[in-house]
Amino acid sequence: MLAWTIYLSFLGALAALLAGNKRPQAVRIIALLTTVAGLGIATAAVVQYQPGETLTIARLPWIPQFGVEYYLAADGISLVLVLLTGIAATAGVLFSWNIERRTGEFFAFYLTLIGGVYGVFLSFDLLLLFVFYEIAIIPKYFLIAIWGSAQQSSARGQSGALREYAAMKLALYSFAGSGLVLAGILAAWVVGGGKTMGLEALAHTDFPAHFQMWVFPLVFVGFAVLAGMWPFHTWAPGGHAAAPTGASMLLAGVVMKLGAYGCLRVAMTLFPQGLAPWGFHVLGLGSWRDVFALLALIGIVYGASVALVQRDFKLVIGYSSVSHMGFVLLGLMTLNQVGLDGAVLQMFSHGVIAGLLFAVVGRMVYDRTHTRDLNELAPMHLARVIPFAAVVFVLAAMASIGLPGFSGFIAEFQVLLGVWQAMPWMTAVAGIGILIGVAFTWRAMTKAFFTATPNSPATHHLPPITWPERLGAFLLLGATLAVGFYPRLLIDLILPSLNSPLFDGLRNAGGWR
Amino acid sequence: MNDAFPWITLITLLPIAGACAVLLAGRWQIAWSRALAVAVATASLTIALLLWHRFDANSIVMQFSESHPWAPSLGMTYHVGIDGLGLLMVVLTAIVVLMSVVASWANPQHGPVYLALALLLEAGLFGTFTALNFLHWFLYWELSLIPAFFLVRLWGGAESARASTQFFLYTMVGSVALLIAFLAIFVATGTFDFLELATMAHSGQLAAALQQHLRVSGMVLFWAAFLGFAVKTPVVPFHTWLPATYAEAPSETTMLLTGAMSKMGIYGFLRILLPIFPEQVQRARTPLLWLAVASIVLPAFAACVQRDLKRTFAYSSINHLGYCVLGVCVAANVTGLANEKAAALTGVLLQVFSHGITAAALFWFLALLERRSGGFRGLDDFGGLRKIMPVFSGLMGIAIFCSLGLPGLSGFPGEFLIFKGAFPLAPWPTTVSLLGLLMTAVFLLNVIQKVFSGRLNERWSAMPDLTTREILAVAPVLALMLLLGLDPQLIAGPIHATVMQWAGQVRF
Amino acid sequence: MSSFRYLDLLRLTLPEIAVALTGMLVLTVDALLLKRVTLPKRLHAGVLVACAGCVTAIFLAHNSPAASLPDGMLVLTPLTTIMQTSLLALSFFTLLLCDSIRFTEDIGEYLALILFATAAMMFLVGTQNLLLIFVALEFLSLSLYLLTGFDKQRRQSSEAALKYFLFGGMSAGFLLFGISLIYGVTNSLDLLRIPPAAIDASLDPLLLIAIVMVAIGFGFKIAAAPFHFWAPDAYQGAPTTSAGFIASSSKVASFFIFAQILAVGLANAAGAGGWQTYTPGWAPILTIVAALSMIWGNLAAIAQTSLRRMLAYSAVGHTGYMLLGIIAQTPRSLSALLYYVVTYALASLGVFGVLSALDAEPVDRIADLAGLARRAPGLSFCMLIFLLSLAGIPPLSGFFAKFFLFTATLDAGNRFGWLWLVLLAIATSAISLFYYLRVLKAIYVADGPRDVQAIRTPPVTMFAIWMLASLVLVLGIAPSPLLGWIEAAIRAVGV
């Protein structure tokens, strides 16, 4: 049943393309129905799921000559991310309701992207995972290049060039990252005996330790590029800022998680010994684990610090995504149960929160005010003019800084627990990162919305918030609050999966049962 | 005494529901939202008094406690309960919030959104004072920041942008430090429950667990946690956010801030810091004591030179809470002297309650003055108000004298007991603190002289005195001040058991 | 010289004869119709006959028995059948695309030339005798030169043909010289009989020179750097359908025969060029040529503003990848090579097909494609499929071709000796996405000129393009059947 999330998305894309650019309302309905159906299937699967099992959805031989199977399966972690995709996709469609130009093509690309993302999360064959991963790259390019928004206050011609640049940079970085992954996958296939590309089979193959030592960073970095790990993150802020709202919600919310998911599912599961100590130290770092943990930590602090000085509202959110993904990667590197659980939870949480932030900044604010410059937004006293947007942003900001009651707190707190266990001194730096995060979020929020004093004059009118926007906001807010108040919803999915046989090697490397 | 009825959950959720109702009512009629807000605040006070009435003064366990598992793998449990300390705080909060909401009635700028935020703040405070599991407690601790921030920011004065952001960020720094410290504790012990942790600390298990799992010294964690509470209380030198925030916030909000929110810090000291880090408090006793002294003396001097009445009282707040910090730190003594410790701690609690209502009352009067004068609140702006507003001057005078610590009013028993208990335990710091007492008298009397006595400032010759309504509104608080001044046993009674337990049984 | 009956020869070469006859038939039909019927109708008639001939030849090819004539003159194996079928299919599509050409009146000759070239290629893949290989190759080349220069209205076409001819002639000389040296050293022209003789002479300098000559000769044909200089001009100057034909069919045939010569004939002179394992032979030479092609081709393509020149340089890049298949020398890598070259030919032909549909306003610069998505959505979509397949994006066949090739190369003999080459290939592949996306950017993203009408493509051309696109897609989603056939055929041959 879960495979239908993929098929429906592609069918929906085709339908949108055929419906064409002349019938935008029909296209929107098709897109909404497709994404809601996907969300429904995902939710049903989560509800029916028995913790700890791995559901096999489809398994057919595909390219027997290379041992490649069309193998779709899901465990708890996959389900969490599939659920995230459903939520983010539906919200994205709702927030893209106002696309008037070439609507058919827009939703065709959008739904193709979603189909690819679903595919990655459900693939248990390496090549199949890679195929879906690559399928997701091209729609991203077109979504940004055609419907994106440029930097603030530039001339029309210039703005086109800027967004095409951002789009091309994003596409090429993703492709380059996937190139590294491909090299690693091929190497793994060869050393694994050239018989199979199945994830479980390869996870139980005993790769030689020194082989794992160089393949692991190759594959990890390849995926981490898409996850926005410092210093390979430079495509992310510009790309997300240039993308149209629905696309940036999906890009920052879900596509970046593809990278982190790949890091966990492929790099860390297949080559866990790549994380073992080298036996010598370079600048105080003794293993790839130390290196990537440090890079993640730098990403947290760097992303937050740069966000603090941005004038462009969307870039603030873009850099905050880099910072939050740093938490995911840091959690992955703790190699203990609570840290990994926190990492996956942060994937879900940030996906929803980033979606919310981009929705407000992109759709509610930018589409109405046509500026992303904080200095230009300040005199508009937006809290008075579009109070719904202000309230939603406050809640989103609270979620983003990790206030308890929202999903971000649970995720970050688990990651910090993991870091305490594994690398205690990093906790303080991570804490500083959180604080800088509070600072930039609060600065952006107050500057953009809450500049009025009781005596400020009344300001101009802006179009009111439409119902699709409200629905999308409620969906996302509901998701983050539900997990924030009742984290067991997701933790009960993730923790048992971490104990499954698939992660045996990782457990041995990390030393936990 | 454990009721089957979840009183504490009720009292915590009631303001939240009330906030939603106020917002909805505001859609129809502003007046309805005001009335509803007052009704909700009164209801909370009623429940609080009910709890007071049913409280068993002789029991040493947590009363009205409820415990439900929430996310066991994370150590999250819904565990609430109150002892004497919690009870006092809950009642104080209810009183102060009611005062603030009533004060806002007359302010047309304080519409449904303001009232809803105030009620949300009340809920956050109730939650903070009753939670017994760190995560659950931290939720309320952080969540109460948000309404406070917006109350200051949106209705505040010219500099409210900077002041509110500074307030928010400073508090967050402390909170994050606190969070990290407790995460470490959880990693070592596997529990977030305050009561369990206190028992473990008492028996020495906590230190052992920290050493074994983390190789991190308890001292580091103590200072991190201390930072969280020091910013909130505030303790000099982490107090710099307070004067600006209190001054920029509308006076009705400052009532809330000084009356109830400022007690969060002391509550944290007593509920969390002392029980869980007894050894560390003891080892850090000397620097802590001198910090407390600094918090008493320096703000008192600073208050003398202020020209803005709100800032004067803001510094006075820091000073009064400094006495509480002194009392708390002084009780961290190894050797016996249980009586003195009990005295100090009782004094702390009395002072907390008294300062709460007194400071709230003072700012209420300031709000009335501001509204009548069209926004003026400088020390030198007024003069001779006694002649035209005798009732106002008289009533505010009572509040000021209460703040001063005049015997017969509620401010005296608290300060007296603190000094009585502190002298034997820490003679030198206590002596220096007397300076604070002196300077307090100086600046408070200065205020009375400058504002009420002297030549009448012609500008205000037409200023109306308090209306009957206003007198009726303020009177209960002043009556309370008198009552508690004459019979402090009213409060000291219910908290006695708690205090004795701290002084005698918990190893300081 | 053992005796064999000419009738057998006739029977075995029925497919080639059919194609040649069809060519002559087309000439005849066209001559008959010349005076009485308009150009479009003549074209339809000619294409109809030609396509019928191709289809017939496919049937005949499938029905011919396996055979092996002495001296390797004619060797028909299942592998030959597959190759001939592919070549005929590619010609079939090329002919369909010719249905709307307007650059010449001599369509009979044009179609006949294509058919003769096809026949030449079929001979080429059916023989293992070096001399006959050379003859067939020359037959093919001459046809291609003529096809390149067929557009007498444009100077560029003649210039391209001349350059092609000069380069081609020179490289043919090299090739012949190399072949004669091989004969001199091994005393045989039959590919199967050369290896035993070459063992003793494996380090003979003469043999090495022969290998270099052969490499140069074929390097020209397959447009490998540094022998590729004719390609940009030929792709740009030749009429669109001719360029498509060169880019697709001739590449398939040339690669096949090159692989056969090296893998079968000169197997023992292979040497190795892996990391830390160097032995002299043709493998190291090809490694350098492959690396050079990949780098030069892809980097030069970035700088191009002319669409066809960009395609030419990208073809050089693809040649580099394909050479990996020969270098690795395993049955699996050779099957991957053949899968790659066939699917590459389909995509290439598709691109040129789309360009020929736009020939009413000849498109040469990339910028001229701006806004095509609005004017011709179907054509644009097919272009998307072709270009993405060339870039190697799944689920199109180009991706799987690269995957098979790179995997097979890594899996070859010396563990990770070729890793550096594969990494280079993946890296340059990533670079190639840039210039393919640029074209797609012009088509989809850029706003074209206002007030232009939709482009109406003739139905036959549209059919051909859609068929090609479908094949590219289907062979990507289900690559295993085609790969399986090729692998089975190669194993049957026993390479």
Model description:
- The complex is a heterotrimer of chains A (513), B (508) and C (495).
- Chain A is mainly α.
- Chain A has one domain (3-510).
- Chain A is 73% helix and 5% strand.
- Chain A is globular and about 70 Å long.
- The two termini of chain A are 32 Å apart.
- In chain B, a hairpin with a 4-residue loop joins strand 1 (63-71) and strand 2.
- The radius of gyration of chain B is 22 Å and the shape is globular.
- Helices cover 76% and strands 3% of the residues of chain B.
- Chain B has helices spanning 7-28, 30-54, 84-105, 112-130, 134-143, 145-155, 160-189, 194-203, 205-214, 218-232, 241-248, 251-261, 263-276, 278-283, 285-304, 309-330, 338-373, 385-388, 390-404, 411-425, 427-452, 468-486, 489-505, and strands at 63-71, 76-82.
- Chain B has a two-stranded antiparallel sheet.
- Chain B has a domain at 284-508.
- The radius of gyration of chain C is 22 Å and the shape is globular.
- In chain C, 61% of the residues are buried.
- Chains in contact: A-B, A-C.
Q: Key features?
A:
heterotrimer; B: 508 residues; mainly alpha; two-stranded antiparallel sheet; 23 helices; 2 strands; 76% helix; 3% strand; globular; C: 495 residues; 2 domains; two-stranded antiparallel ribbon; 4 strands; 2% strand
Question: What's the gyration radius of chain C in Å?
Answer: 22 Å
Total number of domains of chain C? 2
Largest Cβ-defined interface:
A-B, 35 and 39 residues
Residue share in helix of chain B: over 70%
Question: What is the number of helices of chain B?
Answer: 23
Mean pLDDT of chain C: 86
Round the mean pLDDT of chain B to the nearest integer and report it.
85
In total, the number of strands of chain C is 4
Query: Within the largest sheet of chain C, what's the order of strands?
Result: 1-2
Q: Report strand order across the widest sheet of chain B.
A: 1-2
Structure summary, number of beta strands of chain B: 2
